[in-house]
Design brief:
Elements (H helix, E strand, L loop, with lengths): L3 E5 L5 E5 L6 H14 L12 H8 L3 H13 L3 E4 L5 E4 L4 H13 L5 H22 L2 H19 L10 H8 L4 H17 L7 H19 L3 H19 L2
Antiparallel strand pairs: 1-2, 3-4
Helix pairs in contact: 1-3, 4-8, 5-7, 5-8, 5-9, 5-10, 6-7, 6-9, 7-8, 9-10
Length: 244
């Protein structure tokens, strides 16, 4: 038998949570709130019911409820604000949450830089193909500015920050696919941390810029096949230079 306590969600629809009757109390609360977030009842930025309301909703005491909220915060699903306007809010999903998890796996030896590069080689040519079809004039302008900035730096014999894959991220953003952007932003976060030990010569940077310029020109021409080939060659060339 289920017992229900009714409230409305942030959009005024009836909200139903099951009162906890069995199993580990905090785990049960976590599962129900996660389900409410994953099914869209609560969306990023929405405020969850107050602590008092949640206690009544789940028919629990403060201790397991706070334990559940801490677990949800550690998962990156909510963030808790203190003060008069405080409470538990559904978090915006950020690349750093994903990259931190992958970085921890790299530190534990479960994922290495070779794995990251292999993943890029599998993924980025397809991203480039989509960008060749979807990129707008504004997207192309952003890519052009990034390429020109690096070209000017190399011309002045100043090495750009190689661990920043901003051009590749701009290509990903131009696909208009939020998952693609999230994945590439996550890769950038990982590379910023783990590629500090690598150094590039001015010649290396010149080759990188050459590939970026050719990829950009192929995107302008909507030549998806050419973008695919260039990205594969670029990643392979950079891998050899890094001796990955």
């Amino acid at each position: 038998m289920y017992y229900f306590y009714r409230l409305t969600d942030p959009r005024g629809e009836p909200l139903i949570f099951n009162q906890v009757r069995q199993g580990r109390i905090s785990d049960n609360i976590v599962a129900q709130i996660k389900n409410a977030i994953f099914t869209g009842i609560y969306r990023p930025g929405d405020k969850l019911p107050s602590e008092a309301e949640l206690k009544s909703l789940f028919n629990v005491s403060r201790v397991p409820l706070r334990e559940a909220l801490r677990s949800l915060e550690e998962m990156g699903l909510i963030h808790i604000k203190s003060g008069v306007a405080g409470g538990a809010f559904v978090a915006e999903m950020e690349p750093k949450l994903v990259s931190d998890s992958l970085s921890n796996m790299m530190r534990l030896g479960k994922v290495n830089i070779q794995d990251v590069w292999e993943f890029r080689t599998l993924l980025e040519p397809s991203i480039g193909r989509l960008a060749a079809h979807e990129a707008t004039d504004w997207d192309i302008k952003q890519m052009e500015e990034l390429v020109m900035t690096r070209e000017k730096a190399v011309k002045a014999r100043k090495a750009p920050v190689v661990s920043n894959i901003d051009f590749h991220l701009a290509v990903a953003r131009s696909t208009r696919n939020p998952l693609v952007t999230l994945v590439m932003a996550t890769i950038e976060e990982i590379l910023m941390e783990h590629m500090k030990r690598f150094t590039f010569s001015l010649s290396d940077h010149q080759h990188i810029n050459k590939f970026h310029r050719e990829i950009l020109e192929a995107i302008k021409k909507r030549d998806a096949d050419r973008v695919d080939v260039l990205l594969r060659d670029h990643l392979s060339d950079t891998k050899e230079r890094l001796k990955i």
